[in-house]
Specification:
Layout (H helix, E strand, L loop, with lengths): L7 E10 L2 E10 L2 E8 L2 E9 L4 H11 L9 E6 L13 E6 L24 H10 L13 H14 L1 H6 L3 E6 L5 E7 L2 H14 L9 E4 L5 H10 L3 E4 L5 H9 L3 E7 L2 E6 L6
Parallel strand pairs: 3-6, 9-10, 10-11
Antiparallel strand pairs: 1-2, 1-12, 3-4, 5-6, 7-8, 7-9, 11-12
Length: 277
């Protein structure tokens, strides 16, 4: 049987500080999809990106919070997917849940959580392939920026967060040009929502693709952040915190420059170092 996925993933990165580039090994928080299935009625109720570990707790908590189950006895059985793939291995990114026979769940409320369906092999590779199937390809080289421009983004994002200053509880997504000028900023309680607002605004203004721009987000970079930026053609993505393993994998696959831990005059480059002069 294949080993369970780890909560941490090793990666080789570049640490940039002042005029020095230093390579070192780093630990990323693993990000992989978890598919939650009911065996009867046989249906996928959600796919969520998560860090592996305590998957049964996650699936149970999700069903409880959505009102599908109310008591421990409502679950007759919970297990990882046992259906064999071509390679004969059991996969660990799908959970099957059998509810007690008397329970008839109302699944209409779960439709907003649906991401994708797949066989037991749902994984980061499947997520990448799904983007390729939709027609997205690697972003070409061409745009280059200096380290000084990257250094300046964090303060500009923070200065532009007007609502955050009064509430202290919002994420932000900022759009910058190749010279590091802040063109637009959107805030939201969810960083994915903030990015949706920003890209949606540019879409309505007829300004996509953003192939000569930088996007910076508060918080961390995840699969969803990278996916949204790929659809908008963004070549450089920066974040205050760390990326997940899947974010780095997707950035490298689609030739995106991914910067993390951008604070003051220090940042890490996880992919696309060629664009940083």
């Amino acid at each position: 049987m294949k080993n369970f996925p780890s909560s941490k993933t090793k990666a080789q990165i570049w640490v940039v500080e002042n005029h020095n580039f230093v390579t070192r090994s780093d630990q990323l928080a693993t990000e992989e999809p978890l598919e939650i299935r009911l065996t009867f009625p046989k249906q996928t109720v959600a796919v969520t990106m998560r860090t592996p570990g305590a998957d049964f707790d996650l699936a149970t908590g999700f069903l409880y919070s959505e009102g599908i189950i109310k008591n421990r006895e409502d679950i007759a059985k919970i297990s990882y997917c046992l259906e064999p793939e071509i390679d004969g291995e059991q996969k660990q990114n799908i959970i099957n849940i059998t509810l007690k026979s008397e329970l008839t769940p109302e699944l209409k409320t779960l439709e907003r959580h649906f991401f994708t369906t797949s066989a037991c092999g749902v994984c980061g590779k499947t997520s990448i392939e799904s983007l390729k199937i939709k027609g997205f390809s690697a972003i070409p080289l061409g745009m280059e920026v200096s380290r000084e421009i990257i250094y300046s983004l964090s303060d500009k994002l923070s200065t532009g967060q007007g609502v955050f200053k009064s509430t202290g509880g919002l994420h932000a997504a900022g759009l910058f040009d190749a010279h590091g000028e802040l063109l637009k900023l959107r805030e939201d309680v969810g960083r994915h929502n903030a990015l949706d607002k920003l890209i949606g605004s540019e879409f309505l203004a007829g300004k996509l693709p953003l192939n000569n721009h930088i996007i910076m987000v508060s918080g961390r970079s995840s699969f969803e952040i990278l996916q949204k930026c790929i659809t908008a053609g963004v070549p450089i993505i920066c974040a205050v915190s760390a990326p997940s393993s899947l974010a780095v994998e997707i950035a490298r696959e689609f030739n995106i420059t991914l910067v993390g831990f951008l604070r003051g005059r220090k940042f890490n480059i996880y992919s696309g170092v060629e664009r940083i002069k």
